[in-house]
Design goal:
This protein is mostly helical. It contains 27 helices and seven strands. InterPro entries: Na/sul_symport_CS, SLC13A/DASS.
Amino acid sequence: MKILSYLLVYRRFLLIVLTPLLLLPLPLIIKTKEAECAYTLFVVAIFWLTEALPLAVSALLPAFMFPLFGIMTSKEVASAYFKDFHLLLIGVICLATSIEKWNLHKRVALKMVMLVGVNPAWLTLGFMVSCAFLSMWLSNTSAAAMVMPIVEAVAQQIIRAEAEADELELSCSNGSINPALELDGRHCSSAFATLTWQCSNNVGSTVCTVEKENEKGNEQNLPPTEAERKSRKDKYSGIFKVMCLCVAYSATIGGLTTITGTSTNLIFTEHFNSRYPNCQCINFGSWFILSIPIAVTILLLSWVWLQWLFLGFDFKNMFKCGKKKTAREEASSQVIQEEYKKLGPISYPETVTLVLFILMTLLWFTRDPGFIPGWSSLFPNYITDSTAALVIGLLFFIIPAKTLSRTLNGRNTVFGYIPLITWKEFQSCMPWEIAVLVGGGFALADGCEVSKLSDWVASKLTPLGSLPLWLIILISCLIVTSVTEVASNPATITIFLPILSPLAEAIHVNPLFILIPATLCTSFAFLLPVANPANAIVFSYGHLTIMDMVKAGLGINIIGVAVVMLAIMTWIVPIFDLYTYPSWVPNIPSTNGTGL
């Protein structure tokens, strides 16, 4: 047993040592550049999947293994670690840093929730929409970390309201008198027109009568039984689970809609543009057009799925609009309004950040809209989305965070010059691990090209062309969805892109037909708390069990893959003319049909 315990403690160390040794026969026996590149790829992939080493450290392995194998020079490998992707990431993180520093994200989230109302179903949808919107521009982790404290405050307020209501009913059943029900100092007149508890003893038993005054008159009801109270507690426990899960899932779903929304989209964009430089079809606008219907559909279906799974289909209460709020809804509304009041009026830094955010978005959308020439046509072949992101990002280091304030005697008070964000604040928000990880993925992709490993893989995958195209896409989606549950999303997409691109070329299919759905499905890590940071943040609050996430996440995974399959076979086809094999793809002769 001691040996097993030692092995368990040092399992990561053993994995680090044994993996290169066990795979060493591959380059020693075959002795080709393809085998040496495959050896490097396998070692890095295993370290990424198991996280035996930190992801960024594993990503640095190609930097010395490729030169040692004679595949690429050190200068060539080093150039792969910093590309256009990193400039785009820097500009986006500048925006995200300012948004989080000045609490603009919290103001947006609370305002959206206030607009949809506090009915449990609509409250859940409000949290989902606000969190999804934030994750379009911030990291999924930041969006979940910001919205979850608001959800927790609302949940605790509802629990407190439930406890006071139950205590009131219990005291009434014991013969005491409570003239009115109050929650946090507020009369719940919105839940009941008037509540008057009258208790009297009749034949040794206590009879409790509830009088409710409304337009139809007084109506007497018996107090809820213990079973009814337990059922109500179970119902609100289900509401808390739905509210928590909606934050975790919507943070991921919202990231699908923009290239900058999640690291997998950024990695795909850079890989695609590097492998197919003559194709200019993937940009911020085209990705938004193809992905926004997918994200909205998945978001709505996920909302319905979570409602049905934990609360059941109670359409009468789920969609009751225009009715008076219950005591619990009043408690939710109160805490949300109080949180919004704490923010105060919108400040100068918030206003500037909002203006720069809108300006950056407009520059992205209008750079190359497709149907008309964009502003990038003034600088042909020189401008990318990273250019706009950097221009706006640098403004956050220039524009002062404070303005001159006028005192009572009419004089201006001069503050020290402090920009909207500082370099230290930017560094704390910059995901350096992701930056290095993506660089390692680009180095691996370049190595596969130089060593001709990609061509070898393509030749071996050619027989798959006999399968129907939809089946090839479905299999690739299911594989990446399964792997991403146990491996990080960036590592998963970095491993599979160099495999799926040659596959598409080998079967003579537009690479976007396979790469787009695979990229989207890589984000579908919904099953486990460790699948992605957003899940872990929500799970840490203690309202959920592992089985809650597994049951809910399995349904979301199925919904996500189904919607992506529907999208890639319908509305995405005309956007990129997917059924036509493009001229910018290397034309590899194939003896097999594609099953179209």
